[in-house]
Amino acid sequence: MKKLYVGNLAWGVTDEDLQGLFAEYGSVASAVVITDRETGRSRGFGFVELEDGAERAIEALNGQDFQGRPLRVNEAQSKDRGGRGGGGGGRRPF
Prior knowledge:
With 94 residues, the protein is of the alpha+beta class. A four-stranded antiparallel β-sheet has the order 2-3-1-6, covered by helices on one side. Strands 4-5 form a two-stranded antiparallel sheet. Residues 83-87 have low confidence and may be disordered. The chain has a single domain (2-75), classed as 2-Layer Sandwich (Alpha-Beta Plaits), CATH 3.30.70.330. The longest helix has 9 residues, at 15-23. The protein is 18% helix and 33% strand. A hairpin with a 2-residue loop joins β4 and β5.
C-alpha cells in the first residue's frame, strides 16, 4: 500500500471527489482532504492511500487539471524524515 500526497486542490474538493478520481487507477483504501481545525475549511491538499496502482496514478494525475487547478501528486513523505540523534561523536575511552 502506498500513501500519496495530493496538492493544489481546489477549495471545494471533498474526500469523495478524491476517492472517485483515484479509483480509476487502483483500490483506494482511504482518501482525505486535510481541513483547518478551527474553520473546517480545506487546506488545499490531501492524502490518498492506494492498495495498488500508485505509480500509474502519479504518472496520470500529476499536473492534470482537476476542478480548475493543476494537481500535484507524489508519494507522501513520512513525518519523521530526519535522522534521530547525532551519534556519540568521536569520544575515546581513556
